[in-house]
Write a structure and sequence with these properties.
Shape: globular
Number of domains: 1
Distance between the termini: 39 Å
Strand order of the largest sheet: 1-2
CATH superfamily: Nucleotidyltransferases  domain 2
CATH topology: Four Helix Bundle (Hemerythrin (Met), subunit A)
Number of strands: 2
Strand content: under 5%
Number of helices: 6
Order of helices and strands: EEHHHHHH
Length: about 150
C-alpha cells in the first residue's frame, strides 16, 4: 500500500531515522552539559571553592554516565547514584567497569559531593578536588573509548 506514492516501509524507516536523530541530539545535550560542569569545576578549584567544585565534578560524571547509557541502550535510570550508573554500564564496556573498580573509593567520594556539598557542613580539601579532577580526566578518556 502506498501513501502519496510512498511505500509504508519507507515512511517507517524515515520516521525512525528522524526520531533517532532527535534522540541523539537530546543525548548530545547531556554530554555538552557534563563538559560545562567539568569546566566549571576546574574554575571553582582555582578559586578555592572546593565544595562547589566537588559538586560540579559529580554532576559532570553523572551526566556523562547517563549520556553513555542513553547512547548505548536508549535510556538511563533516573538516579543520582554514580555507583548505580556504573553498575548499569558494567556489561556495556569492560574498560568502564574496570575504571570504576580501580577508582571506587574516589568515585564514592565524588558521589558523596552530590548531597554533602549542598546540605551538610562537609568541607572538601584542595587535594581531594585535585585528585577528583585527575580521575575525571581519566574517566573522559575511558568513556570516550567506550562510545
Amino acid at each position: 500500500m502506498t501513501l502519496l506514492g510512498f511505500n509504508k516501509v519507507f515512511l517507517i524507516w524515515v520516521s525512525l531515522d528522524i526520531l533517532s536523530r532527535g534522540l541523539l541530539m537530546e543525548y548530545d545535550f547531556l554530554r555538552r552539559t557534563a563538559l560545562s560542569f567539568y569546566k566549571n569545576a576546574k574554575y571553582l578549584y582555582t578559586q578555592e571553592e572546593y565544595n562547589l567544585a566537588a559538586f560540579n565534578i559529580e554532576q559532570a560524571m553523572q551526566l556523562l554516565l547517563k549520556y553513555f547509557l542513553a547512547t548505548k541502550v536508549g535510556e538511563f535510570p533516573k538516579t543520582h547514584s554514580l555507583r548505580r550508573l556504573f553498575r548499569e554500564s558494567k556489561n556495556l564496556c569492560t574498560d568502564l567497569w574496570e575504571f570504576y573498580q580501580v577508582n571506587a573509593s574516589i568515585i564514592g567520594n565524588i558521589e558523596s559531593a552530590y548531597i554533602a556539598s549542598r546540605y551538610y557542613p562537609v568541607y572538601f580539601e584542595g587535594i581531594e578536588i585535585k585528585e577528583m579532577l585527575k580521575i575525571f580526566d581519566k574517566f573522559i578518556e575511558v568513556i570516550d573509548g567506550c562510545l
